[in-house]
Amino acid sequence: MARCALCKGIFESGIGKCRLKNSDAEICRECAALLERKDMIETGVAGLYLEETKREVTDWMGGLQFRVTAMQKSMGRGFGGARVPRIDFRFTGPLGEEWYGRVQGDMQLARCKRLVKG
Ligand SMILES: [Zn+2]
């Protein structure tokens, strides 16, 4: 068990700890999700995880969930010109705006960015 540095709530520590950026302070999954959401709104970029089979995009603790609206698989070029699988997708972000994300190779992390309207 651990105490969240932000909401002071007690939570189950262990598998996959969340920490505040540049700090050792542990935070709970809910606070991690809130921070990530805030960060997405402020910066317009995010590193998220694509749950391909569920057609969902989540943060690494699963506290955030966004619905994938479109997904396309293709073969891209990796380092040295190697053929690597690639998935391009779109999803609805925290404020209902459209985001674009891409997963390449065997990486789990999807690089995502907010699409500019207009
Ligand atoms: Zn918390």
Task: Please describe what this structure looks like.
This protein is mainly β and about 120 residues long. Helices cover about 15% and strands about 45% of the residues. It contains one helix and ten strands, in the order ββββαββββββ. It has one helix at about 30-45; strands spanning about 1-5, 10, 20, 25, 45-50, 55-60, 65-75, 85-90, 100-105, 110-115. Strands 5-6-7-8-9-10 form a six-stranded antiparallel beta barrel. A two-stranded antiparallel sheet has the order 1-2. A hairpin with a 6-residue loop joins strand 6 and strand 7 (about 65-75). The radius of gyration is 16 Å and the shape is globular. The protein starts with a strand and ends with a strand. The structure holds zinc ion (ZN). The site of zinc ion (ZN) has 8 residues, from helix 1. Zinc ion binds near residues 6, 7 and 28.
Task: Give me a quick take on this structure.
The protein is mostly beta strands and 118 residues long. The protein is built from one helix and ten strands. A hairpin with a 6-residue loop joins strand 1 (2-3) and strand 2.
Lay out the secondary structure.
Blueprint: E1 2-3, E2 10-11, E3 18-19, E4 26-27, H1 29-43, E5 45-51, E6 56-58, E7 65-77, E8 83-92, E9 98-104, E10 109-114
Antiparallel strand pairs: 1-2, 3-4, 5-6, 5-10, 6-7, 7-8, 8-9, 9-10
The structure holds zinc ion.
